[in-house]
Amino acid sequence: MPDDAKPTPPPHQQPAPGLPSYYAQPGQSPTSNPLDKLIPTKNTNALLAYYFGVFSLIPCFGLFLGVAAIVLGVRGKRAIKLNPDLPGKTHAAVGIWVGGFSVLAHAVLTVVIAFAMAKQ
């Protein structure tokens, strides 16, 4: 073997084809950290969807954060569909559900307030 040629790593240490390198380090599964089940740092879309969904329950910010939670939750679920070993399935689902509830509740509340002000 020439001196400047590098040997190729074994197949179990090569990243999965078609996936960005940040999903898994060579020789390491994406879910090898036990905390990834609680805080899915490898799937930031799902994590942000969860936080935006929870914070969308704040009255003034709910409509905007709810929409962001839905969008990020769908992106997080899509990333999980591409790589089933990726954590954050529950976080993405909570973000979608709570964000959707928040958007719906804020829309209904806006309509009720508009009708109440129109009657005066």
Annotation field: number of helices: 3
Kindly name the structural category.
mainly alpha
The pLDDT mean sits at: 81
* Global geometry: elongated
Biggest sheet descriptor: none
Number of strands: 0
Distance between the termini: 87 Å
Low-pLDDT segments, ≥5 res: none
Radius of gyration: 21 Å
Helix content: 40-55%
Strand percentage lies at under 5%
How are helices and strands ordered from N to C? HHH
Can you give keywords for this protein?
single chain, 120 residues, mainly alpha, 3 helices
Could you describe the 3D structure shown?
- By secondary structure, the protein is mostly helical.
- The chain is built from 3 helices and no strands.
- The protein has helices at residues 44-55, 62-82, 89-119.
- The longest helix has 31 residues, at 89-119.
- It is elongated and about 80 Å long.
- The relative contact order is 0.15.
- The mean pLDDT is 81.
Summarize the structure.
The chain has helices at 44-55, 62-82, 89-119. It has 120 residues and is mostly helical.
Question: What is the topology?
Answer:
Elements: H1 44-55, H2 62-82, H3 89-119
Helix pairs in contact: 1-2, 1-3, 2-3
